[in-house]
Write a structure and sequence with these properties.
By secondary structure, the protein is α+β, with helices and mostly antiparallel strands. Helices cover 44% and strands 13% of the residues.
């Protein structure tokens, strides 16, 4: 069995989980009554209870999840052992559990590459998952979310929520300069050139090598130009003309119109929050911070002193970006899912996942609405029930308020519908395992960093492609 690296962390996680991992590890393996290597699932039908792993490892989120689990137990009588597993621990722990024949019954918060890796290793009960999706009604889910969690006719997981990467831009500056929204490569470059000047970068984007956020940012830019990791035959395509052109475009942005030095998840946000960048790329996890609801990441722009939500009120979003060689605009993002493992207590596992997508769905989304955009929009009777609730849920850390207090309906609609334009390298081509392994070694981030430091885009693309080909060979 080969289980390699999982998907890159979300951008919020990249900036918070690293410092919390030591403390959270103890919580993950003890406070929830679950060392997944010692006390795994019930190992078959009718075990009398469920073991559920969930990839939420921040203490407040674990506590909120436990409250939902307790409500399920009270409603059904089924006991649930909740085990919190850090995303960086997941691959190792699931490998150990599978080898010991001690898998959990249900896994939540599973990323798209992780779903494909679990499937490739025959660890999923796709019949149980497919039956449950039919019970819930596929028409109540985002079509794209369902598509990305399928493999042919097999439904691998039940999609739950998403976060997406977006291009954020200063609407006040764009309007003053008479610029169109930065929805395409040409429009982005034109705006960056027009707005770049003393104390203001036209654009800021990630360039740090060895950084998942750099890869996420570039994939977001590249997808719209039809730059793909692999083609339908699984052949690596990072040195294709489309990818070279995307690297060339991104290189122009970060070398001519950005701030100096390697940029990462924290510095890109800091530049925009300080009013020193007209555009930046980040995930939906930034929405509460931009509204001034998180004290360790407050906007510091000159106008923000009088109004901490100034940037939120004067920021537009572009979800899908269009490149000159792309067939259609596209954007990077992640869909996290619930899935049922092979050998699980099928009936109890289906009941639990159904609960998490019905009675437990609102409190689950409410844990972090800015990064848990529902991909189940409603029910057959109320088709927009959950999407409507989402816009009114309070967000924030130190202060809480709904996103609708700060953002226009147009922005919120773009965030809510973003998953429909979501694309991911390797997933639909059946190469999710390769994607996960590639993200563990960061050849794309290295290529972006090289281009940012003057390397020819074609040379950098070739080096990245060869690195991915070597990774693919190691998986065979």
């Amino acid at each position: 069995m080969k289980i390699r690296g999982t998907a890159a962390r979300t951008t919020r996680a990249a900036s918070t989980r690293a410092v919390a991992v030591t403390a959270v590890a103890a919580l993950a393996l003890t406070a929830c009554s679950g060392d997944p290597e010692a006390d795994g699932g019930d190992g078959g039908e009718g075990g009398g209870g469920l073991t559920v792993w969930v990839q939420e490892d921040l203490p407040d989120r674990v506590a909120a999840t436990q409250a939902i689990v307790d409500d399920f137990t009270e409603a059904t009588g089924t006991e649930v052992e909740l085990v919190s597993v850090g995303e960086d621990q997941f691959a190792q722990l699931i490998t150990s559990a599978a080898a010991a024949g001690d898998l959990p019954d249900v896994i939540g918060g599973v990323s798209l590459p992780q779903v494909r890796t679990l499937s490739a290793n025959e660890l999923l009960d796709t019949d149980a998952v497919g039956q449950l999706l039919e019970t819930l009604d596929p028409s109540t889910f985002s079509d794209k979310a369902v598509e990305l969690t399928q493999d042919g006719d097999a439904q691998l997981a039940i999609p739950s929520e998403s976060w997406t990467q977006m291009l954020y831009y200063r609407t006040d500056l764009f309007e003053a300069a008479g610029l169109e929204a930065p929805t395409s490569y040409d429009a982005i470059l034109a705006a960056a050139q027009a707005l770049d000047g003393e104390g203001m970068a036209g654009f800021v984007g990630a360039t740090a090598p060895g950084d998942a956020f750099t890869e996420q940012t570039f994939e977001h830019i590249a997808l719209g130009n039809d730059c793909q990791l692999v083609d339908d035959d699984g052949e690596v395509q990072l040195d294709s003309p489309q990818c070279v052109a995307a690297l060339d475009f991104y290189g122009d942005l970060v070398t001519q119109y950005s701030v100096p030095g390697a940029q990462d998840v924290d510095t890109t946000r800091a530049a925009y929050f300080a009013g020193q960048a007209a555009m930046f790329v980040w995930s939906t996890f930034v929405l509460d911070e931009m509204a001034g609801l998180r004290e360790d990441a407050l906007p510091t722009c000159p106008e923000c002193a009088a109004d901490p939500a100034y940037l939120a009120k004067n920021t537009g979003v572009v979800t899908a970006i269009e490149g000159p060689d792309g067939a259609a605009p596209a954007q990077f993002g992640e869909i996290t899912s619930w899935t049922i493992t092979a050998g699980a207590d099928t009936e109890a596992a289906q009941s639990f996942v159904e609960y998490m997508l019905t009675d437990g769905y609102e409190p689950w989304i409410a844990i972090a609405p800015e990064g848990k955009v529902p991909v189940r929009t409603g029910t057959p009777e109320e088709p927009t029930l959950y999407s409507d609730l989402w816009a009114e849920l309070p967000v924030g850390v130190d202060t809480k308020a709904p996103l609708s207090d700060f953002y226009s309906p147009e922005v919120l609609d773009a965030v809510a519908t973003g998953p429909e334009d979501l694309a991911r390298w390797g997933i639909t081509q059946g190469q999710g395992d390769l994607l996960g392994a590639t993200q563990g070694e960061h050849p794309v981030a290295e290529a972006v960093s090289e281009v940012a430091n003057g390397t020819d885009p074609e040379q950098a693309a070739q080096a990245a492609a060869e690195a991915v080909r070597a990774i693919a060979e190691s998986l065979q």
